[in-house]
């Protein structure tokens, strides 16, 4: 870049020439030349003053009389504009980063090298009740848990520390420290209450399944060992083989229920594919024939299907739900009891219910009945051959059909398991349509 342009030289030498000529005309050549130099110096001084004033806030392009000053100012102006542009980009990125950090579901706290709070996000405000006034305080004053204090003070990446939330009873938090060299450290804290609950539910579930399978398996192994003995007559052998069948059937039933439950839980579409209008009277008849047939004729099973609607649903699922309710009603009722299965219209939709006159359920158990493997009376339920998964399956099937399982029961008098299907799940009964059920 050239600083002095041709016109600058013309201006400079033109001024000298003018001064010299004017001086020469009045017979004062040298004073004329010196005067021209002084004028040039004054012009440069004015340019310099303008430049200085402009350079304090070089936001607009300035105008100078000489190209040299104009060029110098232009260079400064362009580099300033580049820097401002870069600063804008950096600021936008910083804001972006800030909004990402704000939106994080986990608490993120920036600590300076001495462990004082520099910044924190919205989750930190929620989880740890942090406020603006906490800025600058040592984090360990906020959470006085020994392991968390050790973690923050260590300033190095260690195993995450789990601790009880100081603000929310029962909530568990997990702290993780990410060192950032000289800049301090980033402390990440997440709520692991739900995760812990799920983990312990999974552990319980695995323990329950193992236990449920081990019991019949132990029985089977016991009989098999006896069967291995040589001196058994044919009749004893036959009797032992017969004894192996019920526990094997129980294991089979348990595995089948587990598979059904897993499928119900893992299918996210709510069984939309297999949905169709179901003729409930026919479906109930079929279930009664199957389940009632298995149970023998000890109970009186009555179907009361008066609804003018068909249920829009997956027939196999509804069949399995009604089957479970009916087999429970049979198993938990003394012989001779009446069991009524109803399908009726109600103001809120259509009601499906199974009523028995059986042993009933004490009130305190009602809310837990649909938990997997929950039994009111374990010994009795086992003796009745239940898997402990029946009502869990019913609950899931109904949920996939927009309904909720409800129970009314009185010990010694009987129970009523019922649900209401909303109008959106019902189709008017039209005999001309193909009937599925
Ligand atoms: P199970 O296979 O043990 O019957 P369920 O999930 O079907 O498992 O039922 C859970 C528990 O609910 C049963 O163990 C029983 O104690 C109780 N229960 C279910 N249905 C009835 C009923 N109709 N009458 C009395 N108790 C019932």
Task: Report what the structure shows.
By secondary structure, the chain is α+β, with helices and mostly antiparallel strands. The protein folds into 4 domains: 6-97; 104-191, PAS domain (Beta-Lactamase, 2-Layer Sandwich); 195-266, Signal transduction histidine kinase, dimerisation/phosphotransfer (DHp) domain (Helix Hairpins), CATH 1.10.287; 276-428, Heat Shock Protein 90 (2-Layer Sandwich), CATH 3.30.565.10. The protein is 50% helix and 17% strand. It has a 5-stranded antiparallel sheet. A 5-stranded mixed sheet has the order 7-9-10-12-11, covered by helices on one side. The protein has a 3-stranded antiparallel sheet with strand order 6-8-13. Strand 11 and strand 12 (414-421) form a beta hairpin. Helix 1 packs antiparallel against helix 2 (29-56), helix 6 (193-227) runs antiparallel to helix 7 (234-266) and helix 8 (280-295) crosses helix 9 (315-331).
Annotation keywords:
elongated; five-stranded mixed β-sheet; 13 strands; Beta-Lactamase; 50% helix; alpha+beta; binds adenosine-5'-diphosphate; 4 domains
Provide a concise account of the structure shown.
50% of the residues lie in helices and 17% in strands. It has 437 residues and is of the alpha+beta class.
């Amino acid at each position: 870049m050239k600083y002095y342009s041709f016109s600058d030289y013309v201006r400079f030498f033109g001024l000298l020439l003018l001064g010299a000529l004017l001086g020469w005309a009045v017979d004062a050549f040298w004073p004329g030349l010196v005067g021209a130099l002084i004028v040039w110096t004054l012009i440069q001084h004015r340019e310099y003053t303008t430049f200085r004033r402009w350079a304090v806030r070089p936001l607009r392009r300035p105008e100078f009389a000489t190209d040299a000053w104009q060029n110098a100012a232009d260079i400064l102006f362009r580099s300033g504009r580049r820097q401002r542009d870069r600063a804008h980009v950096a600021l936008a990125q910083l804001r972006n980063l800030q909004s990402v950090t704000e939106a994080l579901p986990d608490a993120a706290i920036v600590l300076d090298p001495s462990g004082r709070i520099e910044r924190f996000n919205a989750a930190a405000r929620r989880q740890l009740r942090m406020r603006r006034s906490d800025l600058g305080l040592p984090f360990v004053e906020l959470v006085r848990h020994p392991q968390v204090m050790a973690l923050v003070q260590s300033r190095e990446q260690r195993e995450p520390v789990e601790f009880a939330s100081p603000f929310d009873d029962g909530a568990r938090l997990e702290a993780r420290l990410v060192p950032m060299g000289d800049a301090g450290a980033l402390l990440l804290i997440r709520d692991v209450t739900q995760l812990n609950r799920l983990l312990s539910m999974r552990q319980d579930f695995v323990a329950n399944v193992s236990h449920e399978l081990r019991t019949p398996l132990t029985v089977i192994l016991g009989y098999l060992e006896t069967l291995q003995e040589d001196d058994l007559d044919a009749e004893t052998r036959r009797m032992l083989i017969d004894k192996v069948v019920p526990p094997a059937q129980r294991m089979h039933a348990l595995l089948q229920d587990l598979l059904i439950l897993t499928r119900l839980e893992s299918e996210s579409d709510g069984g939309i594919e297999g949905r169709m209008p179901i003729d409930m009277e026919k479906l109930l008849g079929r279930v009664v024939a199957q389940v009632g047939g298995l149970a023998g004729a000890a109970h009186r099973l009555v179907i009361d299907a008066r609804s003018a609607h068909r249920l829009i649903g997956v027939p196999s699922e509804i069949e399995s739900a009604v089957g479970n309710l009916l087999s429970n009603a049979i198993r938990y009722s003394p012989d001779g009891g009446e069991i009524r299965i109803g399908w009726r219209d109600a103001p809120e939709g259509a009601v499906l219910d199974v009523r028995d006159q059986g042993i009933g359920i004490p009130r305190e158990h009602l809310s837990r009945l649909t938990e997997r493997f929950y039994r009111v009376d374990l010994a009795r339920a086992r003796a009745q051959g239940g898997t402990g998964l029946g009502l869990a399956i019913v609950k899931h099937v109904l949920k996939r059909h927009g309904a909720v399982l409800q129970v009314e029961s009185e010990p010694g008098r009987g129970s009523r398991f019922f649900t209401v299907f909303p109008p959106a799940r019902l189709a008017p009964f039209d005999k001309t349509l193909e009937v599925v059920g």
